[in-house]
């Protein structure tokens, strides 16, 4: 007789967001393709969710560490659930789940967690990255000094601020508008793919609002390009209504979710990424996500032409 046990499990997975209408399942729009809907189907086919619980993620205690918008990618997202384990080997289960997933999602790892593990509440901070092709910015982006200037602007976002103008449907002064940014930095070395260069931003914080990161990128690039002033960053935190440019979704990827406090308390079952898993993440990034961003270059050119230089570059 087959042995079945139900265990709280952390799921680490990557996905290419181009073909999805966001990551979170949308029950009110059943025909909409989402990452979680595909995961649920694969987990059910792999006998990790019972037929009684299929279609009801709340019944398996599903929690998610992040939600991404339409077109946004993830190198390593994390969710948690009470999962049925029917095979002793974790690798066998992992292989079966991946065999039932589409090519734009890859299950990286399954990790046993404590019964109280909650992927959302126990995440210490989230790390995102944003790639922007250099070609549309070539006329104003020229040297190491340029990177330093951009990072001076980016540092204005560090700490706790009200990001009501960086999202929607949140009024100024509301507690939920406050967000803590740990790091916002443009890396020194560009990413090179198919002879094209991309500048890479790293954004780390406790949590982020809808559209917040894309608007942080939009504001920073706009200030650097001269469309806005340095003081506009502070104004956007204070003014009731301040229009902040929204950078394209195509360049944004969730990088990592960190469970620092949980890992210190639960050293026997930490949520950590091994070297082998890092390789899986890197392979998916290079084979799926990066080529997709590369194909999206016209979107960035259109954004620069309409948002930054609608009348041409000022020299």
TrEMBL record:
Active-site residues (renumbered): 69 (nucleophile)
GO biological process: mRNA processing; mRNA pseudouridine synthesis; tRNA pseudouridine synthesis
Protein name: Pseudouridine synthase I TruA alpha/beta domain-containing protein
Keywords assigned: Isomerase, mRNA processing, Nucleus, tRNA processing
Family, similarity comment: Belongs to the tRNA pseudouridine synthase TruA family.
Binding residue positions for substrate: 128
Family matches, as CDD domains: PseudoU_synth_PUS1_PUS2
Cross-referenced InterPro entries: PsdUridine_synth_cat_dom_sf, PsdUridine_synth_TruA, PsdUridine_synth_TruA_a/b_dom, PsdUridine_synth_TruA_C, PUS1/PUS2-like, TruA/RsuA/RluB/E/F_N
Source species of the chain: Stentor coeruleus
Any single GO CC term annotated in Swiss-Prot or TrEMBL for this entry: nucleus
HAMAP family: TruA
Keyword Translocase: no
Catalysed reaction, written as an equation: a uridine in mRNA = a pseudouridine in mRNA; a uridine in tRNA = a pseudouridine in tRNA
Subcellular location: Nucleus
Record domain Pseudouridine synthase I TruA alpha/beta: where: 153-259
GO terms of molecular function: pseudouridine synthase activity; RNA binding
Gene3D superfamilies xref list: Pseudouridine synthase I, catalytic domain, C-terminal subdomain (3.30.70.660), Pseudouridine synthase I, catalytic domain, N-terminal subdomain (3.30.70.580)
């Amino acid at each position: 007789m087959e042995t079945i046990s139900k265990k709280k499990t952390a799921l680490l997975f990557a996905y290419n967001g181009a073909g999805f209408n966001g990551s979170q399942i949308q029950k009110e729009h059943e025909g909409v393709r989402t990452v979680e809907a595909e995961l649920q189907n694969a987990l059910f086919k792999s006998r990790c969710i019972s037929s009684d619980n299929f279609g009801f993620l709340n019944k398996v205690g599903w929690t998610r560490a992040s939600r991404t918008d339409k077109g946004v990618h993830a190198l390593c997202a994390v969710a948690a659930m009470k999962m049925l384990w029917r095979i002793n080997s974790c690798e066998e289960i992992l292989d079966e789940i991946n065999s039932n997933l589409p090519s734009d999602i890859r299950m990286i790892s399954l990790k046993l967690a404590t019964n109280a593990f909650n992927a959302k509440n126990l995440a210490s901070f989230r790390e995102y990255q944003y790639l922007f092709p250099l070609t549309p910015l070539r006329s104003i982006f020229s040297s190491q000094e340029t990177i330093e200037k951009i990072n001076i602007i980016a540092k204005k976002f560090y700490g706790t601020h009200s990001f009501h103008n960086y999202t929607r449907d949140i009024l100024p002064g509301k507690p939920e508008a406050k967000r803590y940014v740990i790091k916002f930095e443009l890396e020194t070395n560009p990413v090179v793919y198919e002879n094209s260069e991309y500048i890479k931003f790293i954004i780390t914080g406790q949590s982020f609002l809808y559209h917040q990161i894309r608007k942080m990128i939009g504001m920073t690039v706009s200030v650097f390009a001269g469309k806005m002033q340095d003081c506009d960053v502070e104004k956007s935190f204070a003014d009731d209504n301040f229009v902040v440019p929204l950078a394209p979704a195509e360049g944004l990827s969730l990088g990592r979710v960190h469970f620092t406090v949980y890992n210190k308390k639960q050293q026997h079952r930490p949520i950590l990424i091994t070297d082998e898993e890092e390789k899986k993440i890197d392979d998916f990034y290079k084979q799926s996500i990066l080529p997709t961003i590369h194909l999206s270059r016209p979107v960035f050119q259109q954004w620069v032409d309409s948002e930054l230089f609608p009348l041409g570059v000022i020299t």
